[in-house]
Amino acid sequence: MASEARKLLALGAASVVFSLLVVEGIVRLIEPREVLREFFEIQDPVLHHKFIPSSHGRQKTVEFDAPYTINALGLRNPEISVAKPTGVKRLLMLGDSFTEGVGVSGDETFTSQLRKKLDQAGLSARWQIINGGVASYSPLLEYLYLKNSGLTLEPDLVILNLDLSDIFDDIQYTQLAQFGPQGEPVAVRPEPAPEAGSWIAAGGVRVKDLLKYNTRTYNFLRRRMVGLIEGSRAKQDFSGDVRGDKYGMLRGDPASLDDQGWSRTYDYLLKIRDVLKTRNIDFWIAVYPYGLQISPKEWDIGRPFWGFEADRVYSGRPQELVETFGRKNGIPVVNMTAEFEEAARTTYPLYYAGDGHWRAAGHQVAAASLFKAVAPYIQDGARPGQDHGQQAPGELVSESAIGTAATP
Hints:
Shape: globular
Number of helices: 14
Strand order of the largest sheet: 6-5-7-10-11
Oligomer: single chain
Strand content: 5-15%
Number of strands: 11
Order of helices and strands: HEEEEEHHEHEHEEHHHHEHHEHHH
Largest sheet: 5 strands, parallel
């Protein structure tokens, strides 16, 4: 009897292994290998994380399959030299996953679309548009990137595409930051590895990593179960307090610049302004809406996961606060909200329903909005909200002027 049981057990185990191998073989026929960000992104002791120079891979979800090619400078951008070519000016775009272009190919990002628009416009100056966006970057990391790498590219204009989730991210990164003797941030270290705990837990982690990096079935299934995986974890914070709620700035209706949690981001933006000012580099901020701020239909699958109501258009007040901050501190602000609202009347969808990032159509709207602001600046030095030739460089933009600048 024992012998028979062992035979049945061995047969059952062999059947399971054979079935798994068959499934793995089928998945390998349809699944590209480089579908993890680890193929083109790495942890960094100064910037927390960054792209791997000269790498490539794919980011694949149930909604998109986007190829990635990273240039020799570690940017999702065509190859460029560090030294600026003679007769060329440079616009460096900073930002997070929206600027990086999660969900679209490199050619479909708004930085690439803006580059094409400027090339075709026949403007008097020749400009290079550089995509410095990296997913989950926020003003703290963007400040460190400028200090350590970005300024070597000799930009003439830097536009920081401020995402509303940057408020939350800056709070989290500040907790990991190292500061110099003058209180200046010098690095944001990666999160320490979690303690292994029991030998059972440690063994489970090793098995998971083995499957993650050596099979395609694991990642194929994980992408399709990510909602269940995340939902099984600790309850999300939907309090509206940006210190713990990633999208808290959208959930309430902040009344002023002084709302709790915003101060760190404001401080890092001013540090960026001051670093660039000492080098006579112009600095702008651009802000854009989330799908739920422009249409009751956009981001419909992602809303319940993050605790937002269906069929509701949320306030654009947070973007207005950024404009107010810019007015008070001499930083031109481009608010793309009106362009997206206009586009949403005739084009759907602009955003991925679950992921929430822009589809290619959304990137086209962002590129058109920025082109309206950048083209006059390139042509004759005009900034957003400024009548051409009316305002000297460095002069504060008036409240009435920046009100119109919000929709250049």
